[in-house]
Design goal:
Number of strands: 5
Structural class: alpha+beta
Number of domains: 4
CATH superfamily of the largest domain: lambda repressor-like DNA-binding domains
Organism: Rhizobium etli 8C-3
Number of helices: 9
Protein name: XRE family transcriptional regulator protein
Strand content: 5-15%
CATH architecture of the largest domain: Orthogonal Bundle
InterPro entries: Cro/C1-type_HTH (IPR001387), Lambda_DNA-bd_dom_sf (IPR010982)
GO molecular function, one term: DNA binding
Order of helices and strands: EEEHHEEHHHHHHH
Shape: flat
Keywords: Plasmid
Amino acid sequence: MNDSYRVRSAWPKMRQMRSKRNIGGSKHITFRIKSFGAFTSVGAMSGPPLKQWINELGLQQVDDPGIDKPVYRKPFDGRIALSAELENLISISLREARDKRKLPRSKLAPLLGITKQVYGRYENGVSRLTVSRLIHLCEVLDATPEEIIAPAAPYLWGETETKAVLLLATIVKLRTFDEEILQDIFSLLSRIDETGSDSGDRAMKVASTSATADDRE
């Protein structure tokens, strides 16, 4: 078996040998895997117990008519939107995004390689969007994933409605900045994060010192 595989360079604890190969006239970067480190460890792959995972995420078991077996979902603002409601909300978001751009179905559908009637099934909630089709729609509508998905699942952007709205508004604002400003903002956030970490470390040291002094007394 050829031991060369194309892999994500972000994989942790994986030593890689980078090389270029010509495949069909185009250059591809491949990585020769020397060791997987933690990925070959059974213990590292086992993860937390399922019950613990469910509890930590606050998931609740629900019976969804659109799914054959019970599933676990995360409530938001005291309720859980079932699959049919999610699909309906995404359909509404899609229609609103198209209307906002004043683009009729007859012009949008050809960009997706489908007929107007087939596209209409997405907006009417008859057909479900695949992830790849959703990405394609974002491309041809010049829309963001947040614009289409957030109205249906705001909890993906925050545990509370206030946090979700604030984070989404922040993302919208950040998208208007150029790379230079984004770099400045990122640097600022990094410094804030470091300051917070340092403060936390100092607080822990103070608490530890106080506890030691109390023990000595």
